Amino acid sequence: MSSEIDTVDSDDLVIGLVQIPPGKSSKELLDTSNPLVLKFLKKFFKRLGKNPGRSFSKPFPTNPELGTFSFSTKDSTSVPIPFIGKGSGGRWFLRHFPTQRLTLQQYDSTLDTELFIPMEEQPTQIEPIIPREPTSPQLITSSDEEYDGTH
Question: Which portions of the sequence form the region Disordered (predicted)?
Answer without folding.
Answer: 123-151
